[in-house]
Amino acid sequence: MRMMPQLPPQAPSPLVCWIRAGAVSSVFVLAALALLALVQGLPPWSPINATTHAVYGPDEALAAGADLRHTGLGLVINVAACFVWSAVAVVLALALVRSGGRAGRGSAWIAGLGTAAIAGFVDYALLPTVLRPGWELVLPVFAVVLTFVALGIGMAIPLRRLMPGARQTAAPRVSATIVPPPPVQPGAQNGLATPEALRHPQPGVIDQRQTRIDPANTVTVDQNAEQSESMKQPGQPDEDQAQAGPEIRVAGRKQMKQPPRQWDIVDEESDESFPASDPPGNY
Question: Which of 10, 168, 219, 267 is 20 to 30 A from 201 in CA distance terms?
Fold first, then answer.
């Protein structure tokens, strides 16, 4: 199945292309008329005034000078005609793109110059004399032809953005700053220091904080920080025990305050092994 060609991703819309083509072609046509009139030794506004022959007649249009009534109206008529033919050129360019032709950006020139040729044929072969541009009243034939060529070039230049393969404006490059990674400590794995490397940050140095469950000391409470009479510190004996001393009894039934009635050798050896929980010697 054949895929239909699509417009370039960053191509402007057909409306934007039409506005650009109408504006550029208007500048090209007006500049060409002024330059060709100067070459013929005429005022640069004379071809523009000649366009108003359909309103004022050829005699008044040719005799008039640069004024708003003739030159201003002539500018409006010529610019409007350029925008009308630019719309035709945009439609023709889109048709060439969707037809699948291989002309590429050359399709813009085909659309622009082809539309100018159509405009010349319509103006001087189909329209009556009163509706013609009127350039032929002051300019020779070759000058009129060159003006239509300028019209085609002015339309083709903006249409090149619609063609596949047109050079698009590249997105600005963003320079990325490369931050070097932090130095890896000796004994690190996957960029992370091992517990042993944390305990020995340098040769011959031991960081005792790393041996604690809470190295940052954020949740550990120092039991010796504040002492009171009602608080007993770890390892501190009761005062009664300190005065009386530990109660130690010699092993044997006779040393008991309340000896049991039945007592055999097994009981004797069990009593001798307490509290070390050592097995009897004859086990």
Answer: 219
